[in-house]
Amino acid sequence: MIIDIHTHTYPTSDDSLLTPEDLIDEAKRIGLDGVCLTDHDRFWEPKDMAALSRKHDYLVIPGCEVTTEEGHLLVYGLQEYIFGMHKAQFVKDLVDDAGGAIVVAHPYRRKYTKVAHTSPQALYEMLDYACSSDVFSLANAVEVFNGRGSKEENAFSAEVAKRLDMGGTGASDAHKIEDIGTFATEFEADIRDLDDFIGELKAGRFRPRVLRKRANE
After folding, report:
1. What percent of the chain clears pLDDT 90, i.e. is strictly above it?
2. Please, which residues have CB within 8 angstroms of residue 36's CB and are 6 or more apart in sequence?
3. DSSP readout, 10-21?
4. Where would you tag: which of 35, 49, 118, 194 has the fewest CB atoms within 10 A of its CB?
């Protein structure tokens, strides 16, 4: 199954131009098997998410992109934002208690800059700095293909995952309709619900997928 595991919709993410209906309709049109709604630091009500999935007869998985001091985390299995979630370890403890899973989102941010990539040594130093973060020890996977990242930024993320021997995911990080269909994650097993999704993430039975080349690549 091919699922876009990192998307944003309005008004839950106020920087998105996508409604949930727009996202689902486009995801279905291009042949995705499901999407995860991972709005910024806000959680959908489980009953509303279930109703959305039933209405469209489509796999819609709840999640959240949590902003922490150590980086952004895609979190699956929690249902509400609690004070203290600006700390990655606090998020990890909550996720463990809930039996959930975590993916480090766009790890190139604030770690890789093309301007500073002047030599192999400069790149190695940026990679060393990125990999030294404790946040990766808290996660089940690393987002290596992000639809809003450049070719160089995604290559950097992929190298981070390789160095740390962690599984890599792909996603559009969609905020507008044309973002959908860039990258996604392919799972080996059928996924029917959130529990299946979390189980496959924890088991490492997935890989990133390129769905289409972008105009700037």
Report:
1. 88
2. 3, 4, 5, 6, 7, 60, 61, 62, 63, 74, 76, 171, 197
3. TTTSTT----HH
4. 118
The per-residue pLDDT for range 157-175, each reduced to its tens digit, is: 999 999 999 999 999 999 9
Task: Give me the CATH code for the 2-210 domain, please.
Answer: 3.20.20.140
What is residue 118's DSSP assignment?
Answer: -
CA 67 to chain centre: 12
In the three-class reduction of DSSP (H, G, I as helix; E, B as strand; rest coil), residue 96 is classed as helix
Phi, psi of 28 (to 5 degrees): -65, -40
Pairing mode of beta strands 34-37, 59-62: parallel
Query: In the Cβ-directed half-sphere of 96, how many Cα atoms lie within 13 Å?
Result: 8
Tokens of 157: 């993320």
- Say whether 138 sits in a helix, a strand or coil: helix
Using alpha carbons, list the distances in angstroms from residue 125 to 117, 130, 205. 10, 9, 31
Stated as kind and residue range, the H or E segment containing 159 is helix 151-164
Encoded tokens for 4: 């876009």
Q: Where are the domains of the chain?
A: 2-210
